[in-house]
Amino acid sequence: MTTTTHAPRDARPPITVEQANRMLPLVRRIVADLVADYRRWRDAVAAFEVHAASGRADPGDAAAARLQQTVQRLAADIQHYLGELAALGVECRGLDDGLVDFPGEVDGQRAYLCWKLGEPSVEWWHRPEAGFAGRQRLVPNDADAAGAAR
Hints:
The chain is of the alpha+beta class and about 150 residues long. The protein has one domain (about 15-145). About 50% of the residues lie in helices and about 15% in strands. Strand 2 (about 100-105) and strand 3 form a beta hairpin. The longest helix is centred in the N-terminal third of the chain and has 37 residues, at about 15-55.
């Protein structure tokens, strides 16, 4: 499983804080489904591996076939959610915790507006090279700079 989308960074104009927060109700629903299905996918993979390691996963084993179908269905659903986010211009950074980035600008420079499942709104940003560890809270001037039309 990959944890990033493949939308070209420069194909769209930067997303403003205001735009990101307007998209958040939809993004929140997609990310909640994504995180839940990712957990189910990991559990199903683990169950399949335990089943296979027990020596019971013969070619005609119905339980192994069901587990494999579940893994494949969940993987397809996860890819669908990632595609929905990419269509919105949102980049998934963490399937475990629902971390996403909205490509934007802060102070006229490329930045990611950062949101994680459970947060009330988009209130953080970081430079592309800094990642999550470099997250900084948006202050009113940053939000104004990130919200200005470019």
